[in-house]
């Protein structure tokens, strides 16, 4: 061992280091400069790197909607999004919705309508509701059910969730 | 997910040269299908070339009165585009019948065409699959095949293409614009995807080093008589067992031109223009619709669990043509 040149030993024992890309993301109004490996999903970045654990990892395959966040105002599945690809974007998570100590009206409506049981899908349901209202395409109850089909609630609180969405749409139309 | 290198493409030429130079490279845009498959190691690219910054994100009118959908326009932006809703409502309805609002906000028009099959054995890396690993065999033919193909199958693969959008594009006779190392070319939508034959691992006729830049819609949009019927196990967010895009050009009670395309039944959106032609100049009656449905499905082969699709597809064609004619309820 002693005879071996120092650099060869060092080379042999160099662990695998993922390449890092530097990106800038504005998350809940705060600009972050971040170093990410290419395979880090936006979901993992939020939860593991920034401790924003309000966004949930359900299926990690874009099927359940628990990871729904707003990217530049549009609802997306953060589990099927590579953080590195969204360099320069604005992300809003459940943590960024309350303003000045007051819950976002959709957050408050989930409480008022008892629109959850275990609460695991709720952050995604709330972000999805806000996205749906921004899109302005839902006109009927059937539209609401169809356009919320990307958010699964295993407790089955759908009836009350639909009421929340309906109320949120009425509120946006009244404004 | 396995590790990979990540690079960004600056323009279409640069994107093509990056992928042409590296056999393990793949383009990534919406990522909704590719990342899903990478997580379970069904797809294992060693490099992802990010094309999301290319200027392919607009919808523009073409010189011949049609519409050009940039490859990077999202499925949502396409379905809700004023001109698409007004002139090509069949396309709008088909797109909105697929996936979820979140996925449609991410998925691009080019990527939609390049979706892989949802055959369960393709996803299950513990089972043989000729599409995933050529030469290992098809687990579906004698396995559970309820969702799988009845037309254009081979002894090597009975996978279906999962896209709803592509079915509407086939009926509308859209054209795919692609660029490769040797320049630009166009591929009619009906020739874009291929049948499995002996090489089911190849989904389309797009070269490995070619990129989709746009999808061109011809001027004729069939906005007066159209429907997209999607039959599935849930009312929303499920792949089609059978889907039908139907469009009619009417002159009084007489059909001038009929277009039909089927989804969920083959390795590609299924067209049979010679069967459609049976309706040209004919009265729009249930009897004539049924004749076309029989001709359309001729030669279909069930594999056990999916035998029901043969009659289902015929009835769906009749219902779709009736709905397109009456322009009542659309589903």
From TrEMBL, chain A:
Top-level taxon: Bacteria
InterPro entries registered for this protein in UniProt: 2Fe-2S-bd, 2Fe-2S-bd_dom_sf, 2Fe-2S_ferredoxin-like_sf, 2Fe-2S_ferredoxin-type, 2Fe2S_fd_BS, Aldehyde_Oxdr_Iron-Sulfur, Beta-grasp_dom_sf
Entries under PROSITE patterns matching the protein: 2FE2S_FER_1, 2FE2S_FER_2
Transmembrane segments: none
Gene3D superfamilies, alphabetized: 3.10.20.30, [2Fe-2S]-binding domain (1.10.150.120)
Keyword Oxidoreductase: yes
Protein name (Swiss-Prot/TrEMBL): (2Fe-2S)-binding protein
Domain 2Fe-2S ferredoxin-type: 21-97
Keywords attached to this entry: Iron, Metal-binding, Oxidoreductase
Pfam families: Fer2, Fer2_2
Annotated PANTHER family: OXIDOREDUCTASE WITH IRON-SULFUR SUBUNIT, OXIDOREDUCTASE, IRON-SULPHUR BINDING SUBUNIT-RELATED-RELATED
From TrEMBL, chain B:
UniProt keyword terms in alphabetical order: FAD, Flavoprotein
Flavoprotein as UniProt keyword: yes
Segments traversing the membrane: none
Pfam families registered for this protein in UniProt: CO_deh_flav_C (PF03450), FAD_binding_5 (PF00941)
The keyword Flavoprotein appears for this protein: yes
PANTHER family: OXIDOREDUCTASE, XANTHINE DEHYDROGENASE SUBUNIT C-RELATED
Name of the featured protein: FAD binding domain-containing protein
Native source organism of the sequence: Pontibacter silvestris
């Amino acid at each position: 061992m002693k005879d071996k040149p120092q650099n060869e030993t060092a080379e042999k024992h160099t662990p695998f280091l993922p390449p890092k890309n530097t990106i800038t993301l504005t998350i809940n109004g705060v600009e972050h400069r971040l170093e990410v490996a290419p395979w880090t999903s936006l979901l993992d970045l939020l939860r593991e790197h920034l401790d924003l654990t309000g966004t949930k990892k359900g299926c990690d395959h874009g099927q359940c909607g628990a990871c729904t966040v707003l990217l530049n105002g549009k609802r997306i599945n953060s589990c099927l999004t590579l953080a590195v690809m969204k360099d320069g974007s604005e992300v809003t998570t459940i943590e960024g919705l309350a303003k000045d100590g007051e819950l976002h009206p959709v957050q408050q409506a989930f409480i008022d309508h008892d629109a959850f049981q275990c609460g695991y899908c709720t952050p995604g349901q709330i972000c999805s509701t806000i996205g749906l209202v921004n899109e302005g395409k839902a006109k009927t109850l059937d539209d609401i059910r169809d356009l919320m089909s990307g958010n699964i609630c295993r407790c089955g609180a759908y009836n009350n969730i639909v009421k929340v969405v309906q109320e949120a749409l009425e509120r946006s139309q009244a404004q | 997910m396995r590790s990979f290198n990540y690079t960004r493409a600056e323009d279409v030429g640069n994107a093509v040269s990056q992928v042409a130079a590296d056999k393990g490279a793949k383009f990534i845009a919406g990522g909704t299908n590719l990342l899903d498959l990478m997580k379970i190691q069904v797809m294992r690219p060693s490099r992802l070339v990010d094309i999301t910054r290319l200027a392919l994100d607009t919808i523009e009118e073409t010189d011949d009165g049609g519409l050009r959908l940039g490859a990077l326009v999202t499925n949502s932006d396409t379905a809700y585009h004023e001109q698409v809703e007004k002139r090509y409502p069949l396309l709008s309805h088909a797109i909105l019948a697929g996936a979820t609002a979140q996925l449609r906000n991410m998925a691009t028009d080019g990527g939609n065409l390049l979706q892989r099959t949802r055959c369960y054995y393709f996803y299950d890396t513990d089972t043989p699959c000729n599409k995933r690993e050529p030469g290992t065999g098809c687990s579906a033919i004698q396995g559970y095949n309820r969702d799988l193909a009845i037309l254009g199958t081979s002894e090597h693969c009975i996978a279906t293409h999962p896209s709803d959008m592509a079915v509407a594009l086939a009926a509308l006779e859209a054209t795919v614009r692609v660029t490769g190392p040797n320049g630009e070319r166009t591929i009619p939508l009906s020739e874009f995807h291929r049948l499995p034959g002996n090489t089911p691992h190849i989904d389309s006729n797009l070269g490995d080093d070619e990129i989709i830049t746009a999808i061109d819609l011809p001027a004729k949009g069939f906005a007066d008589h159209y429907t997209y019927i999607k039959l599935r196990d849930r009312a929303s967010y499920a792949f089609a067992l059978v889907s039908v895009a139907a469009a009619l050009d009417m002159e009084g009670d007489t059909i001038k031109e009929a277009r039909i395309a089927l989804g969920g039944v083959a390795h590609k959106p299924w067209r049979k223009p010679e069967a459609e032609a049976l309706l040209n100049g004919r009265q729009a009656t249930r009897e004539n619709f049924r004749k076309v449905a029989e001709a359309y499905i001729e030669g279909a082969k069930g594999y056990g669990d999916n035998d029901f699709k043969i009659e289902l597809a015929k009835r769906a064609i009749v219902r779709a043509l009736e709905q397109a004619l009456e322009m009542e309820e659309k589903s």
